[in-house]
Amino acid sequence: MAASNSECNSKDNTQKPNFETFQLFSSSVGSGFGIFDDVSQQVSAIPPPPCVEVLASDSEVASCNKLNVESVDFDGVTLFKGRVNTQQVFGLSNSDLVPGKYEGGLKLWEGSLDLIKALRSDIKSELISFGGKRVLEVGCGHGLPGIYALLEGASVVHFQDFNAEVLRCLTIPNINANISSRSQLSPSISTNDEAEVRYFAGDWGEVDKLLPHVSKDAKHVEGSGYDFILMAETVYSINSLQTLYNLIKKCLIHPHGVVYMAAKKYYFGVGGGTRRFLSVVEKDGVMTSNLVAEITDGSSNVREVWKLTFK
């Protein structure tokens, strides 16, 4: 989940958010250099937090500090991104990832912006439409891709993150900031005011049990699942790739569901990346993948956006 100090490049002159240098672990957990740490041993030693649904009306949401926001422009569509202090939420001052405790959800990673641009391009080309569709954003953090789907008329948007704290202190306030300002930001886009928006925290191996549109049976029930699964920077750890893929297969509506995945080609030091994840997909033989975009802007590792569908 590497990030750079440079800004995202684009053809326009709009200001883009800065990305901070990635540090894998805090000094209290590991060496700070992922290549020297035994990631699998650390992950197995720390149990994941419980899976819970976080309610937007939760008193802990209201108790979070006021969100400082800045705007991000995507070819005429403007979204807000909030900024939350990692130290205040998790007590971590210099870390982007602590296995079993914090998975980087308070950062805005480059892949989220790449994903929105790819979605916008496919909508313009009339390849997809979110109107009336069910959407799940996995590893949501700021939730910008899910917010964009909501603004494009999705009837259901569910946001999932590893940490309930991320949902309470960042995702929900960020969504509220975007929805309340949508008329001024993007007057050409109309939100479905009756959309079902819900928030779920927990590990990918268990969180499907909470998701209301996912069949609890071993086999897919016709019509169950999500039309779209959106995920950015979720394939950084080799240890979680199979679990993530299993979640996708459980949650994606069959046979017409679509997954959009934005990530770096390789995550040095933690073993993951788009190609390692796609090898898991190919080995299973159930889904097919297509490259949507490749970003080589010189500011970070090569980034990609892929589309996955059932064969």
TrEMBL record:
One of its GO terms (biological process) is methylation. It holds the Pfam family Methyltransf_16. Its EC number is 2.1.1.85. It is an enzyme of class 2 (transferase). It is found in: Cytoplasm; Nucleus. Keywords: Cytoplasm, Methyltransferase, Nucleus, S-adenosyl-L-methionine, Transferase. Gene3D superfamilies: Vaccinia Virus protein VP39. One of its GO terms (molecular function) is protein-L-histidine N-tele-methyltransferase activity. Its main location: cytoplasm. Transmembrane segments: none annotated. It comes from the Eukaryota. InterPro entries: Methyltransf_16 (IPR019410), SAM-dependent_MTases_sf (IPR029063). The keyword Transferase applies. GO terms for cellular component: cytoplasm; nucleus. The keyword Methyltransferase applies. PANTHER family: HEPATOCELLULAR CARCINOMA-ASSOCIATED ANTIGEN, HISTIDINE PROTEIN METHYLTRANSFERASE 1 HOMOLOG. Belongs to the methyltransferase superfamily. METTL18 family. This is protein-histidine N-methyltransferase. It comes from Cicer arietinum (Chickpea). The lineage of its organism: Eukaryota, Viridiplantae, Streptophyta, Embryophyta, Tracheophyta.
